[in-house]
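Before a colleague's protein record goes any further, I have to sign it off. What it holds is a sequence and that sequence's fold in token form. Would you go through it and say whether the fold makes sense for this chain? The record follows directly below this note.
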Amino acid sequence: MRDFGCPHCGQQLTFENSLCLSCRSRLGFSLAQRTLVVIGRDPEGDVETSGVVDSSQYRLCKNLHLARCNWVVETSDEVGLCESCTLTRTRPSDTDKAALDAFADAEGAKRRLIFELVELGLPIIGREQDTVTGLAFDLLSSRREKVMTGHFNGVITLDLAESDDVHREQLRVEMAEPYRTVLGHFRHEIGHYYFGILVGNADTRAEFESLFGDPDSSYQDALDRHYREGAPAGWERTFVSSYATMHPSEDWAETFAHYLHIRDTVDTAAAFGFARSGVALDHQLLGASGFDRIIEEWLPLSWALNQLNRSMGRPDLYPFVLPAAVLEKMRFVYRLVTSAT
């Protein structure tokens, strides 16, 4: 994530701001420009350098209040939804206040996901373009109906009950997980989506199977075995998490999610001067040694962040170990992502 500022007065702002806290300018996030812009009239008429978009041509997303969305859309767009909100296929009803609050939290995490995918240059093909496997999100709460977080043919379903800190923490403890967040769920499930896009040709498939195993092996048998027997002894030497041991497709999704965790955190650290700018954002310029440079930056950074958290009496920010086998899997993800862009 980048460091953002008001184009008008320079006030430091967050990715979520829709109003400058200093000069009170109306702001919106432009995915096309990948930055916050002022929505108004540019007195100099130079919108490309001034960071101002014409208020007669742009406005905030229709979900400004419903999803706390601060992204800009063209006024000519009759639907009025931004690039992130338009991907949501199903949401809670207007009468479900608790679920709508959780929905807004989930949409905030989803916007971070979409921005990172665009930064990495990964293709995002919505349901309108591909009605069979296009990307869509169903965001519903299990408080009123049965909802299972997961992915199927491009549709990512998220249980909005996960936005409740108590509920999510209970599940984390019950499942013996060191980490569980809504953004983490999105990154994991989007990994399943990109499997169908990135692992396509015979050579790629063969390398995938050598690292992860057969993705077509029975998922139900693997699920039953995992919840009956748990992770195999010594799993820490070859998997990033115990859940990754369940099935090759889950190993891929977990590895993909951790790649996104690492890239976004390193990018943010670089934006604030805590990491070298050369490993951030310029994804295409990293070359064949790019992954090594990312990990060389990540290992001391994550160690320092964990120690900072402990100084505040908090759990480790990144409570995971990256053994050699996991790094090879992640390197494979890195290569596929860079080749796709």
